[in-house]
Structures are given as structure tokens and as C-alpha cells.
Amino acid sequence: MKKTLWISAIAGCLGAPLALAQESVVAASDVGYAPYSMVSNDGSLEGIDIDIAKGMSKYSGIDIKVIDQPWSTTFAGLNAGKFDIVLSAAAVTPERAGNMLFLEGYGDATDAVLVKKSAGEITKASDLQGMTLAINKGSSSGNWIREHSQQYDLTLAEYDKASDAVQAVITGQADGYMMYQSAAGWIALQNPLLAVSDFTTGGGRVYAYSVNNDNPELRNRLDAALECMKDDGELKAIFTRWTGITPKADSVSVNSQPGYGQPGFEGYDDTPHEHDCSAS
Amino acid sequence: MHAFIENFFNWAIMAQYGPTLLVGFFRTVWLALLVIVTGVGVGMLLALIRSIGIRPLNVLIKQSVDVIRALPPLVLIILLYFGLPYVGLRLGGFVVAWFSLSLVLVAFAEEIFWAGICAISKGQLEAARATGLTFATTMKSVVLPQAVRIAIPPLTSRLIAITKNTALASAIAVPELLGTAITVQSDVANTTPLMMAAIGYLLMIYPLVLMSKWVESRSQWAK
């Protein structure tokens, strides 16, 4: 008994979060954001993020429980400690990096435009001339549209839900829906009326999971687990399975980053470490 | 406490995104004003038409009002925005939001004014007509001033509710105050923009409450 007290006292002094002591954490996922997180036919969750969560659990030994959290309240929930991990494809931006601890990127935040097949080929920015472009509210794709709205006479339309943005393209309320290329590819696979533009933006940007600012230990352990998934090609296989597109050799989905977090952003920790990938 | 302020009342974010949210604020005010003018105007008109007592017309008004009051405003908005293009009519988000919310307010305002008119005893109407006043003059000078006074408190509650309902317009890509705040919140990963929106709604709705109090006290003579 005395020994247990000692251990918990030491743990308390080190500031180790309770969640880690129990080896179980809660992750918030925006369920319905296909193909990252969806409800399967039998009612369980499935998708890229869900598969990665399982992989990170395997390598880190931390049990990750996934809950449904609408994207618009995700950051508020993280800051309030309602859950430990943002398990969504959030583009890493300087503004966000100041408010949360990002893991290293797991996918390329390349944006493409979902359009009706009848819209014709879209290979360059000027093909978007005069279009109304939809985005999912709060998505970082809006920044490119805002910056180029004058140049190409673009109108930005922000919808509360991804499904509404797709509806807007189908009904002609919007001419295109700018989103991650992988997600656009998935929707085009489901709906033969729609196509993905060859034109892309945002090369070099990545999206990543994140944890609360005061939880670097959890971030580092999950980051290390993610590196293992990249090393053994598991992450690449997950993307190929869900989007039909194999990540390129220079993709962040294939190459693990040094240190912990995404290099070049606030919260990055460049401590070198070995990849200990013995699955627990 | 520090973390709370950092997250909910962050001055740096307030200063940086104030102008962005101000645009959303004015768009919301404009939308709310248009809805209120249309809704209250048409609602009162319908209540007056109903007081004339043409039976088929009254049945039509009553039925329409009951159906519209029962529908969730968001359904109306989505139906008009995504449904009308299929019959060849494509309306912008702002127009659809104005039309749908006005429709809802018309329904409620008509019932509120009608209740006000019904509350005035029939004897007053008969007495006024007996002195030789026309029906129109009787309504304008005798019944309505009293009916409106009765209608103001419930009407004010509806106006507040419909002003807050303008946030539904964000579902169809109208960048109103709350929607803009949620976008900014996602950009900066901080809850402060929501608090700014809350202050915005307070600035919008509090004058509405004061105004209704003022109109109420102005019409005290009708007692």
C-alpha cells in the first residue's frame, strides 16, 4: 500500500496525466468526414483515421477510444479537456500550432476541386475563372480561395456540412467544392456525376493529429507510433485502400519526420530518438 | 482562470478578427431587419384580412399558418435552397434565408396579432360601428391600437427568436455572424470568436428589447 502511494506521488510530481497512467485516451473524430471517419454498415466506425488509430494503439500500447465530435467544436473540446486527441485531418498552420501540439503530418494537405463531370477539364487555376467554390466551414482550403478571389473572380461559399457542399455542387448552387484531394477522390468514386480536378493547390502542406498543449508526453508516444506505421508501410497501405491513390515516394504518409511533431512549426521537439517498433 | 481567459476572451484574437466578425455582424443585422419588416408587415396584413371574416380565405390562412409554424425553419431553408434548382429556380443563399425566415415570422406574427384582435371585446366594435365609423376606421382607430399593445410582449419574443434563427442561414453558405465566428474559431483553434459573436447578438437583441418596452409604454394611453 505504502509503495503504491509512493508511486502515485512520484507520478503526480512528474505531472504524468491520469490518462497515461491508465493507458487509455479518448480521441475526437468528425464522423461523417469520408473517407477519414465514417459509420460502417454494422454501426461501428471505419475509415483512414479509424485504421490509423488502431495502428497507433498497437505500437504505443495506449488504448485509443474514438468518439464523434463535430469539427466546429473540436478545438473548444480539446482545450476544455473533453478528450485527449484530435483524430482528424487538420492542416498544420502556424495559427493552429500555437494552440495545440501537433503530431508529425500523416497526409499531404493537397487540395483539389470536386466538380460536375460536365464542367470540363480543370488543369490550372485560370480554369476556375468566375466560379463559386464551396468548402466545408472552417476548412483551410478557404484561404487559397480568399487569396485568389480577385484574380480569378471566385466566390467562396462555406457550408456547415461536407454533405451539403456536395449537394451544392450537384444542384448547381456552387460550381466546385475545394477539399483534400483524397477526400474528393473518394466522393467521385461514389458519385459518377462528379469528377476531381487535375488542378491542385497547397503542395508541401500537411495535415496531422494533435493533442492538448500541456500533454507533450502523449504527443511524443503517438508520434513515435505513427513513425512506426510509416516505416513498415502500414500508413501507405491504409491510404491506398481507402482512396484508390497510392501516396507518392516523397509523401509525408511514407516518410517519417525526425524528432516529435511537424518540423518548422511551434511545438516541434527536435530530440532525436530511435524507432522502437515492437508492437505491444 | 488564466487558461479560461486565454481560451474565451483572448484580446489578441479579438483585435485581429474583430473586423472579419463585424462584416458578419452587419450581414446578420441586415438579414434580421429585412425578415422582421417583412414578417411583421405581412403577418399584420393577414390578421386584418382574417378579421374581415371571408370564410374560405380564413380557412386557407389558418391552415397555412399552422403548417408553417410546425415546420423546423432549417428544413424550409434547405428545401428552398437545394430543392428549387430541380424545378429550374436557383435562388441565392441570402434570398432563401430571408424568404424562409420571413415565412416563419409571418405565420407567428399573424397568430399573435389575431389573438390580440380577438381579445378586444366585440362590444367595442359594435359600438364604434353604431356611431357610424366604417369597418376600416374602426379597425384602425379602435381595435388595432389595443390589439397591438397586447401583441407586443409575445411578438418581441418571436423577434428575438427569429433574429437568432438567422444563424441557420450558415447552412446554405450565408456568412452571417455565428457562422463566421465558427470559421475563425477553427482557423485559430480558440473559442474567443464564439464569445465575440455572443456579444454581437447581445448588441443586436438588447436594443430590440428596449424598443419593445418603449413602444409598450407609448401605447399606455390605450388602456
UniProtKB/TrEMBL annotation, chain A:
Keyword Coiled coil: no
InterPro entries: Solute-binding_3/MltF_N
Keywords for this protein: Signal
SMART domains with a match to the protein in the record: PBPb
Gene3D superfamilies given in the database record: Periplasmic binding protein-like II
SUPFAM superfamilies noted in UniProt: Periplasmic binding protein-like II
Biased composition (Basic and acidic residues): 270-280
CDD domains: PBP2_peptides_like
Region (Disordered): 250-280
Keyword Signal found: yes
Signal peptide coordinates: 1-21
Occurrences of domain Solute-binding protein family 3/N-terminal (ranges): 24-246
Family: Belongs to the bacterial solute-binding protein 3 family.
Protein name: Amino acid ABC transporter
Organism for this UniProt entry: Salinicola rhizosphaerae
TrEMBL record, chain B:
Name of the protein in its database record: Polar amino acid ABC transporter permease
PANTHER family given in the database record: AMINO-ACID ABC TRANSPORTER PERMEASE PROTEIN YHDX-RELATED, MEMBRANE COMPONENT OF AMINO ACID ABC TRANSPORTER
Sorted UniProt keywords: Amino-acid transport, Cell membrane, Membrane, Transmembrane, Transmembrane helix, Transport
Positions of transmembrane segments: 29-49, 70-89, 95-120, 159-182, 194-215
Organism encoding this protein: Salinicola rhizosphaerae
Alphabetized CDD domains for the sequence: TM_PBP2 (cd06261)
ABC transmembrane type-1 domain sequence ranges: 25-212
Location(s), subcellular: Cell inner membrane; Cell membrane
